[in-house]
Amino acid sequence: MSVFVDDDTRVVVQGITGGEGSFHAEQMIEYGTNVVAGAVPGKGGQEVHGVPVYDTVSAAVREEDADASVIFVPPAFAADAVFEALDSDLDLAVAITEGIPVQDMARVNKRLSESDTRLLGPNCPGIITPGETKLGILPGNIFQSGNVGLVSRSGTLTYQVVDNLTKRGIGQTTAIGIGGDPIIGTSFIDALSAFEEDPDTEAVVMCGEIGGEDEEQAAAFIGEHMDTPVAGFIAGRTAPPGKRMGHAGAIVSGSGTGTAQSKIDALNDAGVPVGDTPEEVADHVERFL
Amino acid sequence: MRLHEYQAKDVFADAGIPTPESALASSVDEVVAAAEEIGYPVAVKAQVHVGGRGKAGGIKLVDDEDEAREAADSILGMDLKGYHVDRVLVEGAVDFENELYVGITMDRGEGQPVAMVSTKGGVDIEAVAEEDPDAIATEHVDPAFGLHGYQARRAVYDADVPPAIAGDVASVLSTLYDIWGTNDAEDAEINPLMVTGDDEVVAADAVLNIDEDALFRQPDLAELEEESYTDDLERKAGEYGFDYVRLEGNVGIIGNGAGLVMTTLDLVDHYGGEPANFLDVGGGAKAERIANALDMVFSDENVDSVVFNIFGGITRGDEVAKGINEALGAFDEIPKPVVVRLAGTNWEEGMEILNTDLVQVEETLEEAVQRAVANAQEVSA
Predict the structure, then answer these.
(1) Which of B222, B249, B272 is the last residue of a domain?
(2) Strands A203-209 and B185-196, sheet pairing
(3) What is the ipTM of this complex?
(4) What is the pLDDT at residue A254?
(5) 0.95 cut: is pTM over it?
(6) Does residue B55 carry a pLDDT above 70?
(7) Across-strand partners of A203?
């Protein structure tokens, strides 16, 4: 079992003819992902790594039964690509693009509330169900199939934590990167509730960071609705207020909301142990299993 | 990107929001000339990216030439919470009876813009939001439609703005929303919006923060970015295109990916060191970029030791190793000890290439950070 994606997921890659899109489409195919189509306006009829390219996402859905997309489209055109995915009857759209203007995402967000499509990201590494499929840019070789679910706002921090788990022989059901932007599709709570319902997920790791209040809300959700044990990690304890720490969403406001301490306290109050180091997170998970 | 008050006021005035007559000045004589032109009393206001300028002595109200000289002399060149003041705005003083607040920002939790009005202007609005949230009327906006006229009016009436000026304040709020939208702003704020005895409204301050991710479609605002840097190292990082934040410690940090770099900072602190900076080289960095990152960190004279932590996804260990070799190979003597930890994509190839005469190598993040902290303590001792 897994969450959101598995062996049967049929993927269309939006932007497959670009440098990033082409490279990662190949990596996904090598990993075993069922990449059935590409979608790039004006490039219909071409092939990339043996995958047929269509001018529109709807054509890819019609001709190849795609039910999920991965978006590698530059920031200026990315919101349009997300709208196209939402309007093409897909189950899931994964937006890898970093740097989409926040006002574009506010418009996307409004439409999401009326759509049946799940959006993951933007500014995320994607999602992987080890041994079955990956949608995005995560390096497949560090993951291992197992019983721990992982949800994170950051790509490379996910790799670090997964590496610590895998080296101890602890595998993962699914790892989900929800993205580091202030406005994102799938939230911590969406991912946590999916893990809670997944019978194979025996423990969950949640990696948050400074900025916003999503981690605090997730902590309340864990306290009220989850039986599956959760271990936490929060990045940005040393971040000064008012400075954007790489991710557009990673900022402690001048008035002091969005601090690491507030998130750690909320998680601890919900019974979630928070590691000081990635190694300590793995210690907590090992105790759960 | 945060605009200076004078830049934001230009944008507001162009859109039709009433602002006091003003001029920018960078010397005492210019301040006096501007004040004579505008007519006393005037306010002399430091142009730096710092909140609470008034309390910190960065804003002075003056009635004549002597006071103007004195104020200009004390404010120009002063250090305001770490920022050097080299420009002031000289502005006609407004004889006001009331101070309001109007603002537009992005509500992250809702994923929608929100328009705000309060009669408690002229003070820190975040403190008002904390202590007396009912004093701020809010309207969430569907960005596909913009702020409806009725929403602007409802916010104004809900905030109990006096009827005589309600129409004007609603109109300012609507204009402010348009400014926020057309300039790809994160925040647009007037605090205070002053109300005169004749029931005129005037924007006495102006805040306009622009979404850096949207500068590609805001060429006029992008040109202002150069003026917005307040630190030479941050300017250099902007030229190299790095996400960089300068801190006060002595352990220089380079890594890939915001979350992992923040974690590396936190670990430096955890193991008893003090981080000097946040530097994210981003995804897929090639050798030249890696060399630039080292140049960045070596340029900070506070740095006594460097930790280089790469977990490759799309970044390749061999490229990182090449960049480190190139950058350090150029020195007769390595300026500060560098600890390297490579993991993920092509880390084995990277380790083969890496010239270990130039750097210290550790296998895990925790070990690398501990060694860099120890190096820093040794160097500074």
Answers:
(1) B222
(2) unpaired
(3) 0.93
(4) 64
(5) no
(6) yes
(7) A148
